[in-house]
Amino acid sequence: MTKTGTDFKPEEVMISCIAREIKNGDVLAQGIATPLVASGYILAKMTHAPDSVFLYTIGNTLSRDAGKVALSTYEDLSIGRALKQISFTDISCEILSAVKPKEFFRPAQIDKWGNFNNIVIGDYYKPKVRLPGCAGIADVTTYYENIYLYVPRHNKNTFVEKIDFVSGVGYLSGESQAEREKLGVISPGPKKIITDLCVFGFVEGRVALESLHPGVSLQEVIDNTGFEIIIPDKIVETQPPTAEELDLLRNVIDPYGVRELELLSGKKRLAKIREIYKQEIGA
Amino acid sequence: MEGKLMTLTEAAQLVKDGDLIGLGGMTLYRRPIAFVHELIRQAKKNLTLLAFTGGFESDLLVGAGCVSTVRSCYFGLESFGLAPMFKRRVEAGEVKVLEETESSIAFGLRAGLANVGFMPARSLFGTDFFKVREDIKVVECPYTGEKYTAFPAIRPDVAVIHSQLSDKFGNCILEGEHCVDKELALGAKTTIITAEKIVDTEEIIKRQADIVEFEVNAVVELPKGAHPTSCYPDYPVDVEHILEYIELCEEGKFEEYLQKYVLGVKKHKEYLERVGKND
Questions:
Q1: What three-state secondary structure class fits A78?
Q2: For residue A180, what is the domain's CATH number?
Q3: What ipTM describes this predicted complex?
């Protein structure tokens, strides 16, 4: 029996959940500014998936090296320790469609079918908030086989009845696989949504509760989700991170807490960046 | 000057108002910052910015009012957050966005290079992209009958790529993220290389060029020309400088930043002195 860690934060549970979705030998694509995902990949690599290969967006490289997650020294790992340098043109036009790596996306909005948005909040032509854009999400979610979503701040701004722009393909409106293919979509749809409160799966294309993180109540999840979720008869608890996982994460993979940036905004985020940077240049 | 070597001022004069301009590098990595400064000093107007990823350099250019349309699939400052001036100008309706994806730009550039009208891909189906990109058509595969998205060819007027090493002819080395730089350089009508260092052609031959001289119209030597973005392995991202920029923008003081580091500076050397990097 593995020893369970006793004191952990929500982001540490998320990272552990991400790591457990990785199988040995997976090719893992890592997007821009996603240290939670990077931490999960490295954790899997250091535990049960030593032969996974990373496709780094920052670096445009393929690598089998697992080091630290970093803010200012990221390229030392992603480029300095790469197996192969590729151009982004090759990644977009060949590698992604040929290899179909596993990838975790962080939506700004998600609906009950797992369709998601990273473009704008509000009207497209008069946006309330202009977001960075969806990068390659509208390309790959039409054909990837292993799509996962994650939400570091589970609330009603993210889980909404109607999203303002569909830039990531979920289960559309619940069409069958044959109907999806007629529409040009060959992907089966996302597998899971990992949040700071729970893990969702999908039942007939609809968002359904899979497990609650330790200490989180069902009511908390319902209150923070802007649409009706499918609730199973028997509710299980998310397996907490092990003592070994927590030790690796805190002392080896991310000693300066880069992962926390995904949970912070505004001045708090800038202050945390300064703090991490001081430690990185001092190291 | 010899070969295609030019001053920064001369090279920037090759960019015309209204051009479709592609800037090399990715978000915070190997961006042609010094060249962007000069575009702002020359007060370029109505540029359409082709930014596979728009980062610090693009935010400056958009903030300074040089850009009327942005073509991008990601415009942000990575872990630092949203790009403040892009966000502000788009939300105010001052800049238009032509919504792109990684594939729409990558396949678009490849179509331009192949001298065909489009390249097919499996992208966009099931999304709202077709509502905001009515110019993108769907084609039927003549062999399988499947539907494909037909990404239209992209042919930039100008490409500006910052390189670690170049010779005076424009044969140059790109280290770190190649992004879509090689396609930009090969496909653009005018290609400008800014380089950390100008070296003898023999140095390029030893390592093999990523961009070859016939693709290039101008070469400018600009040490630390990517600051505050990184130029791997020579220097990393200047975190403090980017934080200063974000904080000024958040206080509504973009103009102050521009005066301090761009408009109030005549030459790149003076900028390096101002940021304490003139060593």
A1: helix
A2: 3.40.1080.10
A3: 0.96
